[in-house]
Amino acid sequence: MFENLTSRLTRVLDSIRGQGRLTEEQIAAAARELRMALLEADVALPVIKDFIDKVKERALGAEITQSLTPGQAFLRVVQSELTATLGGTAEPLNLRAQPPAVILMAGLQGSGKTTTTAKLARRLKHDEKKNVIVVSCDVYRPAAIEQLRIVATAVGVDVFPSSVGQSPVDIATAALAHARLQYADVLIVDTAGRTTVDQDMMAEIAQLHAALNPVETLFVVDSMTGQDAAKTARAFADALPLTGVILTKIDGDSRGGAALSVRQVTGRPIKFLGVGEKSDKLEVFHPDRIANRIIGQGDMLSLIEETAKKVDAEKAAKLANKLKSKKSFDLEDFREQMQQVQNMGSMESLIEKLPGGAQIQAQMKNVNTAKEMGKVIAIINSMTPQERKFPDLIKASRKRRIAAGSGVQVQDVNKLMRQFETTRDMMKKVMSGGMAKMMRSLAG
Ligand code: GDP
């Protein structure tokens, strides 16, 4: 996410950060560099102009000139102006309506609307314990109706049936009546998208809007289209009272132009980011955290939240206690650790939230950590319990059998044994102090 923009901005800011004094020329030069970086990121021109003007104005003011650490102060100004450009504060989903709260989803075909409908439904059901129903009003593509049914069912959300041949407004009103009868908290309505903004589509969604009176009308847009995403959102905002935007495919967007342009071009807040194809890949949009990520400062808050959600606290506590009591670390413990890490989801999404994460990620492009970890677990699985408990028993002939059993080469088994031994040594050293404490604190 935003790797290119982040590495450019980090370079500019690093060169200025340590400065004890900032001259007007230095500020002007930095502003030029920032401008270039934003142009390259495909940010809308008026947004760039506004941002640079504000940064320059503040940089020449007392905030920086009288600061004891002007370089740092400059960084803070950039961070705060980026936050403002991104919308200032997070705007949570508004569900304060007579239930069911209706969420109308709009967007072009292929923007990720159906995927996002299911992601949002999952989030409301699992994280917020809402009773959610979804319905598709895409009567032009039977495949779209079926797609929503499949993805929503996969996340355990009820789907109101619809079919081609019905009118979208009829479907929507029937779904709303059904949701009322079911005492649903939320009804999410997926709609038909076209490949471009067109009058018929606009008219249809306006009718749906009138029939449903949604509390949220969200525009879903593909962030890979850069500032065009903001322009399309603007066209929709002109026709419909949009309450927010969801940017999808952020995981593939190295530039950031859409994220930085949407708020100012549309006047509407970004509410969520789609950060992957899977149904749990939806993040709440926090302008300040994203600004930090963009300038290479990482997003520790989101990282902590994400980790806390995913670590199985009970298991972590058990493992810590077990390690402490038996004081020896075997391959079963090693496997359990790997599984814990695997459960935390893709390493990439965690790493990119660390300060300097974008750079680490670039270096790791060729290493498929998830695959490597899966391999390690498969190898351990094909050992006997005895071997897992007493790894030193594993001699060459056993290694060949284990390799054959898990479909890998003997070298892979050797590599795993080395990794295990290093980890065991490390565990021995730290078990008395740091690690045990850390694992216990994670657990609760
Ligand atoms: P719709 O036509 O607007 O309903 O779009 P879909 O929901 O069918 O999505 C189009 C494609 O984009 C599918 O292949 C999705 O898996 C993919 N997609 C949607 N959101 C994301 C995202 O946040 N990240 C990535 N990488 N792919 C996404």
TrEMBL record:
The organism's place on the tree of life at top rank: Bacteria
Binding-site list for GTP: 107-114, 190-194, 248-251
Organism per entry: Hydrocarboniphaga daqingensis
Family: Belongs to the GTP-binding SRP family. SRP54 subfamily.
EC number(s) recorded for this UniProt protein: 3.6.5.4
Cellular location(s): Cytoplasm
Physiological role: Involved in targeting and insertion of nascent membrane proteins into the cytoplasmic membrane. Binds to the hydrophobic signal sequence of the ribosome-nascent chain (RNC) as it emerges from the ribosomes. The SRP-RNC complex is then targeted to the cytoplasmic membrane where it interacts with the SRP receptor FtsY. Interaction with FtsY leads to the transfer of the RNC complex to the Sec translocase for insertion into the membrane, the hydrolysis of GTP by both Ffh and FtsY, and the dissociation of the SRP-FtsY complex into the individual components.
Name of the protein described by the UniProt record: Signal recognition particle protein
Domain notes: Composed of three domains: the N-terminal N domain, which is responsible for interactions with the ribosome, the central G domain, which binds GTP, and the C-terminal M domain, which binds the RNA and the signal sequence of the RNC.
GO cellular component, one term: signal recognition particle
Gene, per the UniProt record: ffh
CDD domains according to UniProt: SRP_G
SRP54-type proteins GTP-binding domain sequence ranges: 269-282
NCBIfam families registered for this protein in UniProt: ffh
Entry-linked InterPro entries: AAA+_ATPase, P-loop_NTPase, Signal_recog_part_SRP54_M_sf, Signal_recog_particl_SRP54_hlx, Signal_recog_particle_SRP54_M, SRP, SRP54, SRP54_GTPase_dom
Keywords per UniProt: Cytoplasm, GTP-binding, Hydrolase, Nucleotide-binding, Ribonucleoprotein, RNA-binding, Signal recognition particle
Subunit note: Part of the signal recognition particle protein translocation system, which is composed of SRP and FtsY. SRP is a ribonucleoprotein composed of Ffh and a 4.5S RNA molecule.
Pfam families documented for this protein: SRP54, SRP54_N, SRP_SPB
Biological processes annotated in GO: SRP-dependent cotranslational protein targeting to membrane
Catalytic reaction list: GTP + H2O = GDP + phosphate + H(+)
GO molecular function: 7S RNA binding; GTP binding; GTPase activity
